[in-house]
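Before our next group meeting I need something from you. Please put the record directly below this note.
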Amino acid sequence: GAPAIDGAQVSAKVLKHLKGDKVIVFKKKRRKGYRVKNGHRQALTEIVIEGITASGAKKAEPKKETKKTEPKKETAAEPQDLSKLTVAVLKEMAKAKGLEGISSMKKSDLIAALS
């Protein structure tokens, strides 16, 4: 929306998500025998305001350290039992290898093509 103070910034932290108290919604049309009773619980988010800056100066965020991990070697190092994998996983493996026509293959066909 439109800020009331230009350049103001609020920093907050989400504590938890919860549901509010139940609100009963009762509808009735008199002399017609029409009655409807509904309940509603609003989804709420509990937050803590950590700081308010009026000047608009942004706080320097701490730089996250990136951990470089060695790429995991695929199935070449350790042969897997392909029959225990699902068809979706087998199709992903076949797509990674560049096989064509995998959409019409059955599980046994995929295992034979990947072996």
